[in-house]
Each structure stands twice: as C-alpha cells, then as structure tokens.
Amino acid sequence: MNLIIFLLIGALAGWLAGVVMKGRGFGVLVNIVVGVLGAFFGGWLLPKLGLSFGGDMGLFITAFIGAILLLAIIGLIKKA
C-alpha cells in the first residue's frame, strides 16, 4: 500500500512540475514518470542539503522539488 501511495504522490508531483516548468515538460505520461523518479532523486538529494520533510505532504514536496530539478536537468541536456 505504501508503494501505491508513493507512486501516486510521485505522479501528481511530476504532473504539477510539468505544469510549473512550461516549455520543459514532455507530456503528461513522461512528466508522471519524471515525478516518480524525482521522488527518488529528491529523497536522495534534499537530506544531503540538510532539508527533510516528514509525512505524506513532505513526500509530495520532496517529489515535486526532485521532479522540477530533473525536468530542468533534462531540459539543459536536451538543448545541448
């Protein structure tokens, strides 16, 4: 059940990150995948920066930040 919640939160974060990063999104499905990957990325990166958020809302914030960072990195690589 926790995995399903994690995937749903990551999917929502990816979709929202795609909306926020207009012009850098890659469509709804890819943005959802980026959100799930962003949850992993954010969960790895943010504690290294001294940031941590608890609970489901914290997971959403972490996934959202991670998804935005991944979309920005992918956008930079895509331009090069």
Automatic annotation (TrEMBL):
Pfam families listed in its UniProt record: Transgly_assoc (PF04226)
Q: Which UniProt keywords apply?
A: Cell membrane, Membrane, Transmembrane, Transmembrane helix
InterPro entries linked: Transgly_assoc (IPR007341)
UniProt entry tagged with the keyword Nucleotidyltransferase? no
Q: Which GO terms describe its cellular component?
A: plasma membrane
Q: How does it sit in the membrane?
A: Multi-pass membrane protein
Q: Where does the protein end up?
A: Cell membrane
TM annotation in the entry: 28-46, 58-77
Superkingdom of the source species: Bacteria
Family, per entry: Belongs to the UPF0410 family.
Q: What is this protein called?
A: Transglycosylase
What is the species of this protein?
A: Arenimonas metalli CF5-1
